[in-house]
Amino acid sequence: MDPKDNDLKWSRYDFSKIPFDDIVSLGQRTLLYRDLFNVSWLLGRYCNYNCSYCWPYARSDQKDHRPLEVLISTMDKIKSQARENGFNSFHFSFSGGEPTVHPGFLDLLEYYSQDEMQPHYQSTHMTTNLSRHLDWFEKYVGATKNLHRVSITASWHREMAQKEAFRDKILFLQENDVHVTINMVMVPGMFEDYYQEALFFHEAGINVTLKPQSDPSASRVVDGYTDEQLDRLHNGMPQRNYTKFRLLEKKKKASRPAPPESFMLPQIEIEGDGDIQQNMQVELVDSKGKIWYMDQAERFNAFNFNQFIGWYCRAGFQGIVIREPGGEVKRSYSCHDAPLGTIEEGFSIFDRPMPCVTPSCVSSVDSKIPKSIKPLEK
Ligand code: SF4
Q1: Which of 38, 111, 217, 359 is the most exposed place for a label (fewest CB within 10 A)?
Q2: Is-contact 279 240, C-beta < 8 A?
Q3: What CATH number does residue 192 fall under?
Q4: From the CB of 334, is ligand 1 less than 6 Å away?
Q5: By three-state DSSP, how is residue 137 classified?
Q6: How far, in Å, is the centroid of ligand 1 from the Cα of 105?
Q7: For atom 2 of ligand 1, which residue has the closest CA?
Q8: How far does residue 74's CA lie from ligand 1's centre (Å)?
Q9: Lowest mean pLDDT segment, chosen from 19-23, 221-225, 335-339
Q10: What domain range is 347 assigned to?
Q11: Interacting residues of 224 by C-beta distance below 8 A, sequence separation 6+
Q12: Tens digits of residue pLDDT in 76-118
């Protein structure tokens, strides 16, 4: 028996067997099977941390937040246009800078969760440095309690944060039915140091996303990884349902509204999967029609699988991104297409899937959006 077999650190499903050269369509399963519209919203560049390695364009010391009323009316406009295209379920994902320091953020989430137009399903996600105190996260749990699913990507910044406190906030969130994964960029020269930190969190029952470092064009993984390190990037630390496990362990019941029956995703059986099941968010189809799975689109870059020029893509039709400063509304982050508009001057979402014109689709926000070599139905 392979020693990896009983080890939660390793995927029981070998992602390296996926025939990436022969894949003809793919997408995040929630976007494939549901009438779900996806919004990734970069709320501002202001960040309360100042890490030495942060890109200058990614952060600012200036508070650059738009007023809550503008955010609310933008959310309304997005939902209205998406509904005209037949979508009545929503996923709003927030990032920054640091989204939790936006003074209207919790009110925006509260507003989002009280949609009177009866959406079929609503979820939210944020990427945060997790620096806010526990009482802020208590309010966050309250503001999002009526949503069907809540998830967080917690960016681990070793220069600024303290490991035990970071872990404890995540355990609190899991106990309140929030799904969390920690983001770690595994720089080759620091790989083993970072891996030890990843193990600390993994052993506490927390998902860790091991991300490869990409070259400056963000299209290929940098050189310098050993084969064994690449193996860990390809199949290590698969995303598992630790939140369900934590609720069971604490004898707590999930109290979120249940999605409608028709929203249940087709079950995936992974042979030998243990009590803490692997989550498979992404489905890929090869030219013979065989379906393959991946835990999350973040892993695509570890296989240099990010080129879809000429494919038909639902970015701009089933999902948009909003980026500050400037309030630009775009198909998605990587896309070279002209913007769809701005928050101030208005924007128009596509009325159908459009071909990809961009050489590299590098962010997982972009690559998870359904796409296919053949034209896609509306
Ligand atoms: S770059 Fe944009 S259009 Fe091209 S596949 Fe990615 S998200 Fe779709």
Answers
A1: 217
A2: yes
A3: 3.20.20.70
A4: yes
A5: helix
A6: 28
A7: 335
A8: 23
A9: 221-225
A10: 34-255+316-357
A11: 188, 189
A12: 999 999 999 999 999 999 999 999 999 999 999 999 999 999 9
